[in-house]
Amino acid sequence: MAKFKLFNEDANKSPLKHLWRHFKSNHSALVGLWVFLLLAILAISAPLIAPYGVNEQNAQALILPPSWDDAGQVEFILGTDGLGRDLLSRLMNGATSTFGLAILAALLTTAIGVVLGVFAGLTRGVKSSVLNHLLDITLAIPSLLLAIVIVAILGPGLMNTVWAIIFALLPQYIHSVRNLVAQELSKDYIVAQRLDGANKWQILKTGILPNIYEHIVVIFTMSLSTAVLDIAALGFLQLGAQAPTAEWGAILAENLSLIYLAPWTVALPGILLFIAILSTNLVGDGLRHALQKRRAS
Amino acid sequence: MHLLDIRNLTIELNTGDHVIRAVDKVNLSLKEGEVHALVGESGSGKSLIAKALMGVLNERWQVTADRIHWQGVDLMRLPPEKRRKLIGKEIAMIYQEPSSCLDPTAKIFEQIAESIPEQGLSGYFWQRKKQRKQRATALLHKVGIKRHTKVLDSYPHELSEGVCQKVMIAMAIARSPKLLIADEPTTALESTTRAQIFRLLKSLNQLKSMSILMISHELAELNDWTHGLHVLYCGQMVEAGPSKKVFGSPKHPYTQALIKSSPEHNVALEHKSELYALKGTIPTLQHLPIGCRLGPRCPQAQKDCVATPQANDFHGHTVACHFPLSQK
Amino acid sequence: MQPILKVQALNKQYKTRDGLFRSRFFSALENVSFCLNKGETLAVIGETGSGKSTLGRILAGAEASDRGQILLQGQIIEDDGKRIVHSKELRLIFQDPMKSLNPSLTIEKILSEILELNTQLNEQQRRDKINETLLTVGLLAEHRNYYAHMFSGGQIQRVALARAIILDPLVLILDEALSSLDPSVRAQTVNLLLSLQRKIGLSYVLITNHLSLVRHMSDSLLILDQGKAIEYGKTSELFSCAQSKQGQRLLSC
User: Fold this and answer.
1) Which 3 state secondary structure label does DSSP give B151?
2) C105–A210: do the CB atoms touch at under 8 Å?
3) Which of A85, B247, C78, C108 is 20 to 30 Å from the Cα of B308, by its Cα?
4) Gap from B285 CA to chain A (nearest CA, Å)
5) Do the chains contact at A2 and C147, CB–CB below 8 Å?
6) What is the mean pLDDT, run by run of 10 residues, along chain B of 328 residues?
7) Host H or E run for residue B73
């Protein structure tokens, strides 16, 4: 009865295209995705397109307000801070250290988390339960607290923060992936595949992964927003990125003393952080809703 | 007077892009003490009709009808609160998978006790528990469970599907409803328990003159004890009438195919010979053909079939077909 | 003639937890034996808990038995719970065809993986084989680019069948595969199964509750009750004169 379907294009789409169709119909998620992509591009190309160097000081232009203010200058669109550094350049570079590093951290977490999660899901018995119970203990500690503890051990610094965040995010990640894999393993088509003579690796590759990678992307976006927040928080607490580094949290902390004199130096990085996390969450939420809709249809 | 009288019931699904007419102008009427069956394959909308009657469809579904009369009261015009009260008192429903309809964390006694109406109990509240126990035991006896103490004291997962279905029926008849809607009550059951449930329903109908609306996809097991049969295909009522007439001389090609496709009713069928089957598959809700929805699969289809056929009445045996089969 | 499938004294026990340390053994199959000839159908009936599903899973290799042998064409393939040969001649069809197909892969990928795992065909040969199998079960070659969710109830049953017969098996095990279908789809599927049996001589082990189908399709009949085979014989004979009370009760309704 292919005839019924020949003229109906949407029926011929792969599950991935279905997902995209549902995602597209959600406008806020789409806006979130665009902002997310813009930020990602900015994170990569910031050093090239920023008008000034990160730490380039302009002694004649201290605490300049943004250019739309009467006292502002057009050379410094978003104004300057207490040391005469161009805020726009610093914020753009901040995208690299905050957003870019958060993506890096989330990607690394995904890589390690998926491997360990799949391992935990596929094994049974003592190996699996030891891994799970250890993870459950760490799950009881909030990720930021865990990150602070790890930074306390490793010492402050931007790269140490990244490691700390990876370790702090891992338990949740492994837990979610393990649940996904365990859920898949009980499905009939996995049994069918095993009866076809597939070994564990083949079951994983063609049976399980194609069904869970979208869920992994959702978990990725959730851990990404946590990572952005944690990097900024640690930077703000001066446990992460140190003073001259352009990192949004660090910029915030640095300019906190100027909050009455130059409120834009605090407000702008705050707004950027807000936008970065909002867009990530919008994408994640949109994806999750699209997955639910696809399952329902 | 009719117990239930439905005219031109239409149920539409609003998908956002367009409106799908899942049930198309269905008529159904039922007298007191009768057993009627709604027969159809998956996607025929038979469960939708029952749900629309009970008023449990969510707001994505639009229900319109010329009238849904329950003992002369139009349910469509009643405020929802009143309607729910009326239905809760007089109509009961049982479902396909009994074990998933029972609360897994409560004992059977608690669940049956909950369905026993307060009005029937007398005395102070400390006397009521005993009365409830007696009533629950009596209900279980009515549905043919003899080990009542053991069943009352167990959780649903400890009982077999057949016993669970009997418990569901016991709960349904606790308020002595006038109509029992049974939505495929036996599909999850084994053949022996299936026969038991049918016997039970039959005796409930005969002893208490309770009307029953059976919903099923097996035509074969219904014909000898139902008074009326309604055959649905893709939301259209294709044939309705007294069971003997519909079953004995089907006038619609679809009904005929349903009867001929099951080996039970063709005693002369040779071992391992081909069964009669319509070509093609049931269209999905998104791809319903226009006119008579059986059209593309119908062996008798002609040019006229692109228009929706009107129901023709042959002495209470209605057929919606342009070219009804004439047998004998 | 040598039987195609021979099962000798198959036993299976399950351990159930009873309290914290005690465990009870509950016997799902006890000394079940039967033979199946080429081109014939064996029907297995019984109530819930009679072990008929366990039997199907053991035959297909999804579970291991405790004791007993399974012989395929005179060659032992399972001996006392050890699967000696991974058998591609015994294929299982699941109760719910939709659930037995991976939703994120196209039909071609699913079928092609089965061939990759079990045969030495190259890509072109695999493609031909897939086309041929799809045509055999009454689908079109274009259907291989479809995903499972795009098929209707009757077609998905055909895909599940294609999945089972693509390796040219000798025996198909149908675990309640016909019970939950709509009557017209069931009639189509039964016709397809019967025509395959006539054409390529497939044998079926039909695990079901549907007595009229048993009567129509099967040559021999095995009735299980609490893991024991209480009746075994020709279908026509058993229907007319079953020996045990339990058997009579099962067959009468």
Assistant:
1) helix
2) yes
3) B247
4) 11
5) no
6) 84 78 84 86 81 81 84 82 85 81 85 80 76 85 82 83 83 84 79 80 85 82 81 86 82 83 70 76 76 81 81 81 72
7) strand B73-74
Crossing angle of helices C123-136 and C153-165, rounded to 10°: 130
pLDDT in tens, A186-202: 888 888 888 888 888 88
Closest CA to B234 of B295, B176, B183, B315: B295
What pLDDT digit, counting tens, does each position of C56-87 carry? 888 888 888 888 888 888 888 888 777 777 77
Closest CA to A207 of C116, C105, C166: C105
Is residue A3 predicted with pLDDT exceeding 60? no
pTM above 0.90, yes or no: no
Q: Mind telling me how many Å the CA of B20 is from chain A's nearest CA?
A: 14
Question: Residue C153: how many CB atoms within 10 A of its CB?
Answer: 19
Residue labelled with tokens 């006890």: C30
Which pLDDT score, from 0 to 100, does residue A275 have?
94
Neighbours of chain C (3+ CB pairs under 8 A): A, B
* Chain B residue numbers touching A4 (CB-CB < 8 A): 283-284, 287
pLDDT tens-digit map of B177-236: 888 888 888 776 777 778 888 888 888 888 888 888 888 877 777 777 888 888 888 888
Contact assignment for A188 to C100 by CB distance below 8 Å? yes
User: What DSSP string describes A185-239?
Assistant: HTSHHHHHHHHTT--HHHIIIIIIHHHHHHHHHHHHHHHHHHHHHHHHHHHHTTS
Please tell me the distance from the alpha carbon of residue C238 to that of residue C25, in angstroms, as a whole number.
32
List, as ranges, residues 103-132 from C with C-beta within 8 Å of A.
103-106, 109, 113-114, 117-118
